[in-house]
Amino acid sequence: MAKSVDEFNKKRLRSSNITVVISIALVLFLLGLMGLILINAQKYSDYIKEQLVVNAYFDENYDAKDSLKIVKLEEETFKKVQTLAPVKKATYISRSMAATEAKKSMGIDSDALFEENIFPSSIEVALKPEYVDPAKIDEAIKVIKSVPGIVDVKNDSTLMVDVYNNLSRILKWIFGFSLLFLILAVVLINNSIRLKIFSKRFIIKTMQLVGAKRRFILKPFIIEAVVLGTIGAFIGLLALFGVWYYFTNQIGSAFVQDNQQYFWLVLLVFGVGIFITVLSTIVATWRFLKSNVDDLYYS
User: Fold this and answer.
1) Backbone angles phi, psi at 112, to 5 degrees
2) pLDDT in tens, 19-33
3) In the chain, helix, strand, coil percent, each to 5?
4) pLDDT digits over 72-131, tens only?
5) Between 3.90.650.10, 3.90.1300.10, 3.50.50.60, 3.30.70.3040, what CATH number should domain 53-131 receive?
6) Which residues form the ABC3 transporter permease C-terminal domain (predicted)?
7) Whole-angstrom Cα distance, residue 197 to residue 279?
8) d(Cα 98, Cα 90) in Å, to the nearest integer?
9) Widest pairwise Cα distance in the chain
10) CB-based contacts of 81: which residues, under 8 Å, 6+ apart?
């Protein structure tokens, strides 16, 4: 009879542990998914911002006999622009290149309509994402315009402001959902642990009544919590990257590959899983350690 009771308790304990691990894995999977979305959304936001360019123009009025000298000066100016703090990438556009682009945009194949030299040479500047901020774009333009050889800098400020505001709004929503999932992770993992500890409340109280110290009683529960949290986080991450790999293969895009940020995400998921599990275990166990024997029947 005693043997069958022990086997029943072991099965119940095993079932309880499996339930807790699955709960932790599912919650951390959702938390990690939001983390991946946030990482990639931020990177794509920066990528889109870098596509918003400003055009710095050289002086278009010069003598034909000075053309070689002007080309050399433009090369020097271009190198200076590349080293400026707000500049992410700079592309030199010669007069002939500007003419070719104009023909393409107007659908003209012939040179009869206009001469190549009517367009000034310029530098197409992609700004760093932080300088696309409407509060800093004017500062960046002033810095570029201050370079000797640049006579004018033009940009579509309205488009930049609209794109910046829309991207910022989207990132705020994603960040808000990430925080919501973090709160849900805390609540759900805490509830799973509390149910597990609740099933052992009589064992906890019995150990206390026979003289065991609170630290001695807590220790095995904390060790078990670390193990369950680690296993749950591992399963959750395994499922997460499996789903992410399948998804990116299906759409034919690798998304943003930033191993450092993915490494920190893995650490975060493991840290959250273990921390919440251990904290919930301590709080739930401490509650029964402080309670009276009669309270165990009404908890």
Assistant:
1) -70, -30
2) 778 888 888 888 888
3) 75, 10, 15
4) 888 888 888 888 888 888 888 877 777 676 667 666 655 555 555 667 788 888 888 777
5) 3.30.70.3040
6) 176-292
7) 12
8) 15
9) 109
10) 56, 87, 90, 123, 125, 144, 147, 150
